[in-house]
């Protein structure tokens, strides 16, 4: 598995946290709302809600914001009606892009995403045009200072993980998305902390970009991240290290 892009994509998203904290909180609370609406407001019985809450807490999202989102979803407060959609498209040089979206207006969001793709030299595509290039998996990022490769492989593979790989100074553990909770608990029980633990669309192949296309791809990611409706962006890009992020 060529995993060289996962950590850089995560680092890119993390780099946006401080600059766009308010917008990030709004997106995370929207994800909490949808999880609670579809599976109930009890995180002990709703794993999706628990993951959404954990993700919000990891970036210090205020407790009041989290609780308000759950109450809206369960009818204790007035709530919105969000729809879950995955949009697909092509970035510069044919990079495959998936956008996970929560929106209350499908037409508005599609128009905004189309303009974002076109502004960066890409185009929004039809459903299914690039999704076949990705596998939906559990992905854990582990700092090597917290576990040796042998120890991590012992714990992760025994719990059903598919692979452990050292990528850009971090271990990446991948598993079938249905095994995510089993692997997460195994790492937790072994007291191996994770830098990131999430389900993610992982590319089967990557597109190597030159500096110019790399800049356009970063512009596209920034435009998509700026959109309130976009929850996550996945791409099979391999951007040169010399291209500055942001």
Automatic annotation (TrEMBL):
TACO1/YebC-like second and third domain location: 82-236
GO molecular function: DNA binding
Domain TACO1/YebC-like N-terminal: 5-76
Alphabetic keyword roster: Cytoplasm, DNA-binding, Transcription, Transcription regulation
SUPFAM superfamilies in the record: YebC-like
UniProt cross-references to InterPro entries, sorted A to Z: Integrase-like_N, TACO1_YebC-like_2nd/3rd_dom, TACO1_YebC_N, Transcrip_reg_TACO1-like, Transcrip_reg_TACO1-like_dom3, YebC-like
Keyword Cytoplasm set for record: yes
Any GO BP: regulation of DNA-templated transcription
Protein location: Cytoplasm
GO CC field: cytosol
UniProt superkingdom: Bacteria
Coiled coil segments of this chain: none
Keyword Zinc: no
Family, similarity comment: Belongs to the TACO1 family.
Protein name per its UniProtKB record: Probable transcriptional regulatory protein BSF38_05274
Organism in which the protein naturally occurs: Paludisphaera borealis
